[in-house]
Design a protein that fits this description.
Blueprint lengths: L2 H6 L2 E2 L5 E6 L16 H13 L3 E6 L2 H8 L10 H20 L6 E6 L1 H5 L1 H16 L3 E6 L12 H12 L4 E6 L20 E2 L4 H7 L11 H13 L3 E6 L3 H8 L2 E2 L1 E4 L5 H11 L7 E4 L1 H10 L8 E5 L7 E8 L2 E9 L4 H7 L7 H5 L13 E3 L3
Parallel strand pairs: 2-3, 2-6, 3-5, 4-5, 6-8, 7-10, 11-13
Antiparallel strand pairs: 1-9, 8-10, 11-12, 13-14, 14-15
């Protein structure tokens, strides 16, 4: 496509500061087996330019199984047993990280996750803390599903959904999905020359999902259904999804200038609104409350502050790290709920550090999950 033709189809990207970039195997696998830097180089340049502009990027990358097949080609028969594919993933992980590292002077950090890691509340918090710390240290986190120990999760397109979950995990502003097609079409462009690119999706309706077809259908466009499912997950967290053709260097170059040739799938609500809605309506552990003093209650309400241990009076009920709890203050009018949020510490730990300074946490508990009992990103105020 010429520059003039491309410019006719460009649209502005959503404003973003932190993003997840998902890269599929079709962009990394070499024709003769193994991995190829052919398309990865342009994507890496986009990441580097974004980081230099003060943005943060987490890459969710497929390709480990393809890399493993190049190491042991005789183990690559079609329909290989799941254990064999897991072994190939284990062999290929190092090659996959090596591929990404060659493009960056900054360290590349490998993060292996399963969906179970992200469904478990404590592991969810640990994964989020690790990823945010890696970003703060100036590294490039490269996330992949832990195929070596996964069973049901190891299937085509699963990293699309993993990328959406990671985007919500790190409070990303946008999810970029690099694929081998220009975006969502109203029909299969590989079989219908009249198919038209859909530049924007305001809502993921049944009609829109039907455009992607099902797995292996005549309408489907090579995993587009899973990409729309991922966009729905990201949208529920208030995150826009962008689909673009990672095989076209001119398209990738335009991303550096915040211009998109592809499909933008808008979230139903803003990221902040979605986060606050979830915090407000997610179930609280029965009887789980953190009692705070009047000063802490005022700081939460007036300053949007995090809850520090110094403002905690007591912990009530039983709850674990990662549980949703209610924050209450006692006064002449009785007990009043002022907020709710995700506790970084268990009830036992909160009781031990109540009234103490954040710097004393490790000396009291022997470990430290951070200086906040509830971080402000995990807290929502309740109406008076």
């Amino acid at each position: 496509m010429s520059d003039a033709a491309l410019s006719l189809h460009l649209q502005p990207l959503p404003a973003w500061r932190r993003a997840v970039l998902k890269v599929g195997s079709s962009l990394l696998a070499a024709d003769g087996g193994g991995l190829s830097p052919r398309f990865a180089l342009g994507l890496a340049q986009f990441v580097s330019s974004s980081v230099l502009a003060g943005r943060e990027v987490v890459v969710v990358s497929s390709g480990a199984v393809a890399a493993g097949r190049a190491i042991l080609p005789r183990a690559a028969e079609a329909g290989a047993a799941i254990a064999q594919r897991q072994a190939l993933a284990a062999l290929g992980q190092a090659r996959l990280i090596e591929l990404w590292q060659r493009f960056f002077e900054r360290p590349v950090a490998q993060v292996l996750l399963t969906h179970d890691d992200l469904r478990n509340r404590r592991r969810y918090l640990n994964a989020r803390a690790t990823l945010k710390e890696l970003l703060a240290l100036g590294t490039l986190p490269v996330v992949n599903e832990n195929d070596t120990v996964s069973v049901d999760e190891l299937k085509l397109g699963d990293n699309d959904n993993l990328a959406a979950i990671v985007a919500a995990l790190i409070d990303a502003d946008v999810l970029f999905i690099a694929t081998d097609i220009d975006g969502l079409y109203d029909a299969n462009p590989r079989g219908n020359p009249q198919a038209r690119l859909v530049p924007e999706v305001a809502e993921l309706t049944a009609e829109v999902l039907a455009m992607a077809g099902g797995s292996g259908s005549a309408v489907g466009t090579g995993g587009m259904r899973t990409k729309l499912e991922a966009a729905a997950k990201a949208g529920a967290a208030g995150i826009d999804t962008v689909l673009f053709n990672g095989r076209r260097p001119e398209v990738v170059r335009e991303l550096v200038h915040d211009r998109l040739h592809g499909t933008r799938i808008r979230a139903a609500r803003s990221r902040i609104a979605a986060r606050k809605y979830w915090l407000r309506h997610a179930p609280v552990e029965r009887g789980a409350r953190i009692v705070v003093d009047a000063g802490a209650a005022a700081a939460l309400a007036a300053k949007g502050a995090s809850l520090l241990p110094g403002g905690v009076v007591a912990a009530e009920g039983e709850f674990r790290r990662g549980d949703m709890v209610e924050v209450v203050v006692r006064g002449d009018g009785g007990v009043r709920a002022v907020a709710r949020g995700i506790s970084q510490y268990s009830a036992v730990d909160v009781a031990r550090i109540a009234g103490r300074h954040s710097r004393d946490i490790e000396s009291i508990l022997g470990y430290n999950y951070g200086g906040n009992v509830i971080h402000r990103d995990d807290l929502v105020l309740l109406p008076a």
